[in-house]
Write a structure and sequence with these properties.
By secondary structure, the chain is an all-beta fold. The chain is built from no helices and 33 strands. Strands 1-14-13-12-11 form a five-stranded antiparallel sheet, with no helix packed on it. Strand 9 and strand 10 form a beta hairpin. This is Pyrrolo-quinoline quinone repeat domain-containing protein.
Length: about 400
């Protein structure tokens, strides 16, 4: 791995209001407001554990649904009473009122490959995509463009912490690039050899990223110095998940790897031939790790510390794909080709489904916050399902 274009000195701290690394830890997402879902996977550890302690019934009825384009595949982001979502089909990013669904602004941001969710922090919306080969920052209040950064071939990964935006690029063999959040000025970049498809996890000053050439990397957030790398069983498409000293990654070959966060040493793996392609990111809390598959419609739970299987959701035989699951109270929520599902957290038993009217279903992973489940569908509609009308 080759480090490129490093600018001497440490990165600016707390510029533009990005989350502070000093507030980060891997035991839980304490730094995130409990009424917000500001990034893909809820927090920068990508745990996908909602602050919502009570389940939201999918039969409660939709508070609102709003069509903004033609194809939403990323998680809706909920910050400061607003919902931000990117429509891949139309190449537009929209800001909606959290309570009413009113469209407050909509901007053409291009990029049919903006598959990753926006990152919202410090009054800005950050996006990165292959289609326009550009990372960009929008004013969260108005949608006006504040800066752009060309990534040559582009990628889909983005994260913001400590005044720095981390974006993936697959130009010249692929790179992870650190940009100043306020200006978009490049701080450093590191060649990683292959595309960084999912967003990185960032915990305690370390950036964890998986690449499609089967590598998992741990890099110093200040300068990109490699701390360790691990050769996984297959390409890593999903974001890594970090919890209690362990990094969890799923691979295209269907194996979950649990790695020591400090050294990259493998603690356990789920074994070959057990699961389909693990494109979705895992969800993990104190005693449960949940994974879903993209091609076989499986959902399975493991004990995070030992890898012992806890349950299989065996009554999902009719679905093909599962989006990144979210743990919320005693439920696990995920999208699929036939709608939005809720299963029992402790047993995997199917509880409810919100049928998708859209062809192709709901490839968006849900956000569960404020007694509401937010999800997008494959025909460009954002849905808000709430237990309070």
């Amino acid at each position: 791995m080759k480090r490129r274009a490093y600018l001497a000195g440490t990165l600016p701290l707390l510029t533009a209001g990005c989350t502070s690394l000093a507030e980060m830890n891997d035991s839980g997402p304490a730094f995130v407001q409990t009424d917000e879902w500001p990034t893909d996977g809820y927090d920068l550890a990508r745990t996908s554990v909602s602050p919502q302690s009570d389940p939201v019934s999918l039969s409660s009825g939709q508070r609102w649904s709003v069509e903004i384009g033609s194809e939403i595949r990323s998680t809706p982001i909920v910050v400061d009473g607003r919902v931000y979502v990117h429509d891949r089909g139309a190449g537009k990013t929209a800001c909606l009122d959290e309570h009413t669904g009113e469209v407050l602004w909509k901007r053409s941001t291009g990029g049919r490959d903006h598959l990753a969710a926006p990152a919202v922090d410090g009054g800005r919306v950050y996006l990165n995509g292959r289609g326009e080969r550009t990372a960009l920052a929008l004013d969260a209040e108005t949608g006006d463009t504040e800066w752009t950064f060309p990534t040559t071939h582009g990628s889909r990964s983005i994260a913001c912490v400590d005044g720095t935006v981390f974006v993936g690029s697959d130009d010249e063999g692929a790179a992870l690039i650190a940009l100043e959040a306020e200006t978009g000025r490049e701080q450093w970049s590191v060649d990683v050899g292959s595309e960084l498809f999912g967003p990185p996890a960032i915990v305690d000053g370390t950036v964890y990223a998986g690449s499609t050439n089967s590598r998992v990397l741990a890099l110093d957030a200040d300068d990109g110095t490699e701390r360790w790398q691990f050769d996984a069983s297959g390409g890593v498409v999903a974001a890594p998940t970090v919890r209690d000293g362990t990094v969890y990654v799923g691979t295209q070959s269907g194996i979950v790897h649990a790695l020591d966060r400090e050294t990259g040493t493998e603690e356990w793996n789920s074994g070959a031939g057990e699961l389909g392609m693990l494109y979705p990111s895992p969800a993990v809390d104190d005693d449960l790790l949940v994974v879903g598959t993209w091609n076989t419609g499986e959902v399975r739970a493991f004990e995070p510390h030992s890898g012992r299987e806890r349950w299989r959701a065996d009554d999902l035989k009719q679905i093909v794909y599962v989006t990144s699951p979210v743990i919320a109270g005693d439920r696990v929520y995920f999208g699929s080709d036939d709608g939005l599902h809720a299963i029992d957290r402790d047993t995997g038993e199917h509880r409810e489904k919100l049928q998708a009217d859209a062809a192709g279903g709901m490839q968006s992973s849900p956000a569960v916050v404020n007694d509401t489940v937010y999800v997008g569908d494959n025909e460009g509609t954002v849905h808000a399902v709430s237990k309070t009308e």
